[in-house]
Design goal:
Oligomer: heterodimer
Largest interface: A-B, 7 and 11 residues
Distance between the termini of chain B: 23 Å
Helix content of chain A: 25-40%
CATH class of one domain in chain A: Alpha Beta
CATH architecture of the largest domain in chain B: 2-Layer Sandwich
Number of strands of chain A: 6
Number of domains of chain B: 2
Shape of chain A: flat
Order of helices and strands of chain A: HHHHEHHEHEHEEEH
CATH superfamily of the largest domain in chain B: BMC (bacterial microcompartment) domain
Radius of gyration of chain B: 17 Å
Strand content of chain A: 5-15%
Chain lengths: ~290, ~220
């Protein structure tokens, strides 16, 4: 009987659609954002890219704050997900090497594999690279291939210029794929460099997918720890510009060769103003990704 | 909605633990076999006949009395009269309880009229009993356990419907009650195998719905 009912029912015309009730238009703005009254927060917000003095709407963030946050997060995600295209190293005049990692996903999940060269790359380093130099500069994708592609080449060239100006001999330019910081130890050890320097995309923060970090180590060898390294981070156009960073890196390398050490034992006091010192630095300006 | 179930309303349910033998005799029972009685009124007589039969399948009870009232539930003699009085008898009051449980379960979940025109002004009872109990088997003169289609509709609809049902499947008419009856419906009992009975009932319902929709053609 149910089947018959369904059959009869399906040939019945549908009842007329009931008229839509009138929906009153929502008020234009339910809450108005409260302008930030605290002068302290306003001043503090000018000196940092941190989310200070952003106000609130009721108990929530204002829409433009949320949108900006989401846009910045998207930039960071895109940077982590990016990969160096094949042949990028050769097109830009580098010797291309890669770590033992085989895929981008494995690169993210296995830092240990990213710290060692694979067999083919080891052979390339042994045969094609200049040995016994002062500084071996390596450029690498790290956690942001975007940064490597954008400012990596410029920073590398600036570092080479600065080192040469200080009378340091520089090795064959190497670009490493799927590289972690400690990869500089193996490469530096193979070429017998006094100082190894790796310039690689740093872990993206909110809105900075294009930041590079430089890690410098004296007497590179497998087994060095982070305590043996000096580093400069936030190298991008809105942070430390590549030219300034190159000056400081060259100064660091020179000091390491002079003091025959690096990391926590290196005396930075003798470097003077060139490494940035403790003077006033203009604050970074937050990049607006959405209209407010 | 067309062919929506119209669930029968049970209007009264009472028991007589130890009925007077004269009364039992007057209602068609056997005072030697029956001491306790169960009495039910309901507003759908044919659903009640099916439910009484169901009671004889589930409990050791006999249907001693079942009669429809004249002109149906719409013209009942009282608020609790409905369309039919059914009486079951047994030796033991507990058997009566068991029978009444089965009877009411059948009324609430199984046997019912269906709405044939969407306004409940024409109704149809295209019920299939998969396996007859003692009561209807005796009434129909069939063996206990035979499938039977129990078809009821108003006079003209029933006539058209019965013709459709008999032609729709391998069924045989056991009893055809022509109008007028007590409630002025017309009734037919058909038997065959279970699938045939079901096909006949569906054809019957479809024909009644068709007549209800286009009465003049």
């Amino acid at each position: 009987m149910d089947a018959l009912r369904d059959e009869i029912g399906s040939s019945d015309p549908l009842p007329p659609i009931p008229p839509m009730p009138v929906v009153p238009a929502p008020p234009e703005r339910v809450y108005t954002p409260r302008p930030e009254k605290s002068a302290f927060a306003e001043q503090a917000a000018r000196h940092t890219t941190a989310l200070l003095g952003i106000g609130h709407v009721g108990t929530r963030y204002a829409t433009n704050v949320v949108l900006q946050f989401q846009a910045e997060l998207a930039v960071a995600h895109a940077a982590v997900g990016a990969e160096l295209p094949d042949g990028w190293a050769e097109q830009n005049g580098f010797v291309g090497v890669r770590s033992r990692v085989t895929s981008h996903r494995e690169f993210l999940l296995r830092p240990d594999l990213g710290r060692r060269l694979d067999e083919a790359s080891l052979e390339i380093v042994r045969t094609r690279c200049t040995k016994g130099i002062d500084v071996q500069v390596i450029i690498a994708d790290g956690l942001s291939a975007v940064a490597c592609m954008q400012t990596g080449k410029a920073l590398h060239d600036a570092v080479v210029r600065a080192c040469t100006a200080r009378g340091l001999s520089v090795g064959t330019p190497i670009a490493a794929r799927f590289a972690r910081v400690w990869l500089e130890d193996e490469i530096g050890q193979e070429v017998g460099a006094k100082v190894a320097m790796i310039l690689l995309g740093e872990r993206p923060g909110l809105g900075t997918g294009d930041g590079l970090s430089a890690y410098v180590v004296h007497a590179p060898k497998i087994g060095n720890t982070d305590g043996d390294r000096n580093m400069i981070s936030n190298i991008h156009l809105r942070g430390i510009v590549p030219d300034d960073a190159a000056e400081r890196l060259a100064a660091l390398a020179q000091a390491m060769i002079a003091q025959r050490c690096s990391g926590v034992t290196l005396d930075l006091g003798r470097l003077g103003e060139v490494t940035g010192g403790r003077g006033y630095r203009a604050p970074q300006v937050r990049q607006r990704l959405v209209e407010s | 909605m067309i062919l929506e179930r119209i669930i029968p309303t049970v209007l009264s349910v009472r028991r007589l633990q130890r009925a007077d033998p004269k009364l039992i005799e007057a209602y068609g029972g056997d005072p030697d076999k029956h001491t306790a009685l169960g009495l039910v009124t309901c507003d759908q007589d044919d659903a009640m006949y099916v439910a009484l039969d169901e009671a004889t399948k589930q409990a050791p009870v006999d249907v001693i009395f079942a009669k429809s009232f004249y002109a149906g539930a719409a013209h009942a003699s009282g608020r609790l009269s409905g369309e039919i009085l059914g009486v079951i008898g047994a030796r033991d009051p507990e058997e009566i309880d068991e029978g009444l449980d089965a009877l009411i379960r059948c009324l609430q979940h199984d046997a019912c009229f269906y709405d044939a025109d969407g306004k409940r002004t024409v109704t149809v009872f295209p019920h299939v009993i998969a396996s007859l109990g003692e009561y209807l088997a005796k009434e129909a003169g069939l063996a206990v356990g035979t499938p039977m289609a129990y078809l009821v509709a108003p006079p003209l609809e029933a006539t058209i419907g019965l013709d459709a049902a008999l032609k729709a499947a391998e069924v045989r008419a056991v009893r055809i009650t022509v109008p007028p009856t007590e409630t002025n419906f017309a009734c037919a009992w058909l038997t065959g195998d279970l699938d045939a009975c079901e096909a006949a009932a569906v054809a019957y319902a479809a024909a009644v719905v068709d007549v209800a929709g286009t009465p003049k053609r």
